[in-house]
Write a structure and sequence with these properties.
It comes from Ligaoa zhengdingensis. Residues 15-277 form the Radical SAM core domain. Belongs to the organic radical-activating enzymes family. It catalyses: glycyl-[protein] + reduced [flavodoxin] + S-adenosyl-L-methionine = glycin-2-yl radical-[protein] + semiquinone [flavodoxin] + 5'-deoxyadenosine + L-methionine + H(+). The protein is of the alpha/beta class and 281 residues long. It folds into 2 domains: 3-46 and 89-280, Alpha-Beta Barrel (TIM Barrel); 52-83, no CATH class. It has helices at 60-64, 75-79, 94-102, 105-110, 126-134, 151-159, 173-180, 185-196, 215-225, 268-273; strands at residues 3-13, 21-26, 47-50, 85-88, 90-93, 114-118, 140-145, 163-167, 201-207, 231-238, 278-280. It has a 9-stranded mixed β-sheet with strand order 5-1-2-6-7-8-9-10-11. The chain has a two-stranded antiparallel ribbon with strand order 3-4. The longest helix has 12 residues, at 185-196. The protein is globular and about 65 Å long.
């Protein structure tokens, strides 16, 4: 039985696929998007999160800590009088996660939903994910992914799904490297695989001011996916200033390379030109 790490399970999700859904957030991501709003999902291993601005410095956490560097053991979590500390990340077997999902799966099915695997990047834990999917017969299964993986892994996972939500963040490869830390070649290749397939899917674009909210990026993306018979729509997700709120909790600094006060451009008419339905989340 394989083990994996999740950092959240959200109930009653309405933007992560058809109907009412559970969304499981798998930990770990190979991208470092400059606008990421879930920094606790970047590293695969569990980690301590602390609401430092509210800390009174009572010292109880230091009294119980037995380690020179944090190993996310959780000893300090229990003694914090203001409940400012928590562990982000829970290691589970595939059966444990499947059982957790199945507890309420009948309820979500009544509302046309199921479960969506998000992240982080769920494909980073592909073998664990595949085993979990095999343990969910009859459940509508979806993924929210960057598509950053090899073609064979992408194909194997998509075959076990009912629905795919996939990001195309930036079409230009150099800009993609600048703002996410990786090339987009694997992503575009897998997007083409999705376009040629028979699974219903959505392309999601996180709209970042001054980065990808321009006609060239929208148009090149539209050209790449135009004509895909199973494409339901393009979802535009505008940047929100709260994206950097959790970085101090994991001991990091939020360093956006763009003007967070700039207003984003939503050019839905470009997608309509290519016969593609679009919506703004």
């Amino acid at each position: 039985m394989k083990k994996g790490t999740i950092f959240d399970l959200k109930e009653f999700a309405v933007y992560d696929g058809p109907g009412l859904r559970q969304t499981v957030f798998l930990k770990g991501c190979p991208l470092r998007c400059n606008w990421c709003h879930n920094p606790e999902g970047l590293r695969v291993e569990p980690q301590l999160m602390v609401s430092t601005p509210s800390c009174t410095g009572c010292g109880r956490c230091k009294e119980v800590c037995k380690h020179e560097t944090c190993i996310a053991c959780g000893e300090c979590v229990a003694v914090c009088p203001l409940h400012l500390r928590r562990i982000a990340g829970q290691v589970m077997t595939s059966q444990e996660l499947a059982d957790l999902i199945l507890e309420n799966s009948d309820y979500y099915a009544k509302y046309g939903g199921g479960v969506t695997f998000s992240g982080g990047e769920p494909l980073l834990q592909a073998e664990f994910l595949l085993e979990v999917l095999s343990l969910l017969p009859g459940v509508h299964k979806a993924i929210e992914t960057s598509g950053f993986t090899d073609e064979e892994t992408f194909r194997r996972v998509v075959e076990q799904l009912d629905y795919v939500i996939m990001d195309i963040k930036l079409f230009d490869e150099e800009l993609h490297r600048k703002y996410t830390g990786v090339s987009n070649s694997k992503i575009l290749t897998n997007a083409k695989q999705l376009c040629a397939g028979d699974k219903p899917f959505v392309i999601r674009i996180p709209v970042i001011p001054g980065v990808n909210d321009n006609e060239e990026n929208y148009r090149r993306t539209a050209e790449w996916i135009a004509g895909a018979k199973m494409l339901e729509q393009v979802e535009l997700l505008p940047y929100h200033k709260t994206a950097g709120a959790k970085y101090t909790m994991v001991g990091e600094k939020y360093r956006p390379l763009f003007d967070t006060d700039q207003k984003v451009q939503i050019l839905q008419n470009i997608f309509r030109e290519y016969g593609i339905r679009s919506s703004v989340l």
